[in-house]
Design a protein that fits this description.
single chain; 206 residues; mainly alpha; 0% strand; globular
Length: 206
């Protein structure tokens, strides 16, 4: 099977899992629209491809350094906790269309926030390394095959995020302020939970 197709499938189905940035994309698309959702999805795809590259390049040994793992995990958890707290704050104080969400005020800002949020868990490099080890059995271990896998991962991740943003943008027309506040509450709690779990595991597993 061609490496790009394998990578596409990996990127698509890994992105399909509900995670903190999926929650962030959903609530931001509900509030700000399709363009902001696409920008967040693009940021997720860029970091997925970057981490897949690092995993394929053998960066995993760096993550065995105890102090580095703790620093990365705590920093990543803090980023998600901040995003979660701000999202919960929006759920309690915002009227639809009247919010001042600096992090997603436009596609460019949303893209940057997505990059930071997705990069908040660099320990996923290890997961991508394991995935690549399995995928190489079907695509080969050459540099060109690895590069095609990475390209496929980015495309697959972007495809799912685009589909998610598009679906939410359609739903957005039918929901009211109460539904958006509920989405904010769920997303905020989810981000806080993911952030706390990431920081705890980084310290506890040291």
């Amino acid at each position: 099977m061609h490496a790009v197709l394998v990578g596409f499938g990996l990127g698509f189905f890994v992105a399909l899992q509900l995670g903190p940035m999926s929650l962030f994309l959903i609530r931001s698309t509900l509030r700000r629209g399709w363009a902001v959702g696409l920008a967040i999805g693009a940021g997720v795809a860029v970091i997925d491809a970057a981490y897949a590259t690092l995993g394929a390049a053998g960066a995993v040994p760096l993550l065995t350094i105890g102090l580095l793992r703790v620093v990365l995990g705590v920093a990543g958890g803090a980023v998600l906790i901040v995003l979660g707290a701000r999202t919960l704050w929006s759920a309690f104080r915002v009227r639809t269309g009247g919010e001042l969400d600096y992090e997603v005020s436009g596609p460019r800002r949303a893209f940057v926030t997505s990059l930071v949020g997705t990069a908040s868990n660099p320990l996923t490099i290890a997961s991508w390394a394991a995935i690549f080890a399995a995928a190489s059995a079907r695509t080969g271990t050459s540099a060109s095959a690895a590069a095609m896998l990475v390209v496929g991962v980015g495309l697959g991740s972007a495809a799912w995020m685009t589909a998610l943003a598009s679906g939410i943008a359609i739903v957005r027309r039918a929901v009211g302020p109460r539904a958006i506040r509920i989405a904010d509450g769920i997303a905020g709690l989810g981000l806080l939970g993911f952030g706390g779990a990431l920081a705890y595991s980084a310290v506890h597993d040291r």
